[in-house]
Amino acid sequence: MATRTICGVTVQVNDEGFMTNPAEWNKDIAVELAKEEGIAELTPNHWKVIDFCRQSAATSGAAPTIRTITSGSGISTKELFSLFPKGPAKKVAKISGLGKPEGCV
Amino acid sequence: MADDNRKIAFICSKGDLDMAYPALIMGWAALGNGIDVTIFFTFWGMDLITNKRVDHLELAPVANTSMKMSMMGVPGNLGIPNVMGILPGMTAFTTNFMNNKMKSLGVPPVREYLAMMVDAGAQLYACKMSVDMFGLKKEDFIDGVCDIVTASDFIDMVADAQVIFI
């Protein structure tokens, strides 16, 4: 398993750059990972999505699908795709320190 | 990222309930991965974007060799006999069965699914020849259908896309 250092914390990542231990994640790491994904600043609505994903994964053990996010977080599909342009499914999971979403819808 | 300029186009030519979902599921996955999605509806696929039809797509049990009764909890490899499939109400039964299966998997109905995809940026187009053949007009379509285009327009549109025919 590869590791990398983000904001002074050494975390475990898989070969696609997803963190493999959600417990190693913190908000500074999220800000840094968001920049890498082309999101310069995390707004309150970004955090609403990230917080929802963290809670959902803590319960289910896997990163939520886009539909789970839009039906549970109060953020619409349109909004989610504009908050995390060009591929919210993977981007949201990566920034939230979770694995790739499991599930197709 | 390699996905940055990737484009996928689906051609939906079937109007059966089971043939509506492949493009929706793969297209939604593509959108989620940041890939541009275009869907061209033609022939029976027009049902998917026609207001009067989209909520009434059906799945017929006749000559459907893959639909085994094991899906309904009957053990073994038994199919629904074709002679039973022709009985009144059987298509309604299998349609209802499939709709419930989809619902239990958290898959939205076709109308809602398409609306969700349009919100995510999918471009929907109706085939000009099919529009003429079925006597349809733009106002017969669900919201989100961008335009009625010719086959030639579509071919130009997808010059740099991967095309999947369903």
How many extended strands of chain B? 5
Per CATH, what is the topology of chain B? Answer: Hypothetical Protein Ychn, Chain: A
Output mean pLDDT of chain B. 93
Q: How do the helices and strands follow one another from N- to C-terminus of chain B?
A: EHEHHHEHEHE
Q: How many helix segments of chain A?
A: 5
Task: Please give the oligomerization state of what you see.
Answer: heterodimer
Helix content of chain B: 25-40%
Features:
heterodimer, A: 105 residues, mainly alpha, two-stranded antiparallel sheet, B: 166 residues, alpha/beta, Hypothetical Protein Ychn, Chain: A, 6 helices, 16% strand, globular
Question: Can you summarize this structure?
Answer:
With 105 residues, chain A is mainly alpha-helical. Chain A has helices at residues 27-36, 44-60, 66-72, 77-83, 88-95; strands spanning 2-6, 9-13.
What does this structure look like?
The complex is a heterodimer of chains A (about 100) and B (about 170). With about 100 residues, chain A is mostly helical. A two-stranded antiparallel sheet of chain A has the order 1-2. The longest helix of chain A is centred in the middle third of the chain and has 17 residues, at about 45-60. In chain A, about 45% of the residues lie in helices and about 10% in strands. Chain A starts with a strand and ends in a 10-residue tail after the last helix. Chain A has one domain (about 1-95). Chain B has about 170 residues and is an alpha/beta fold. Chain B has a single domain, classed as Hypothetical Protein Ychn, Chain: A (3-Layer(aba) Sandwich), CATH 3.40.1260. Chain B contains six helices and five strands; from the N terminus they run E-H-E-H-H-H-E-H-E-H-E. In chain B, strands 4-3-2-1-5 form a five-stranded parallel sheet. In chain B, helix 1 (about 15-30) links the parallel strand 1 (about 5-10) and strand 2. In chain B, helix 1 (about 15-30) runs parallel beside helix 4. Chain B is globular and about 50 Å long. The two termini of chain B are about 30 Å apart. Classes of the chains: A mainly alpha (about 100), B alpha/beta (about 170). Chains A and B meet through helix 3, helix 4 and helix 5 of A and helix 1 of B.
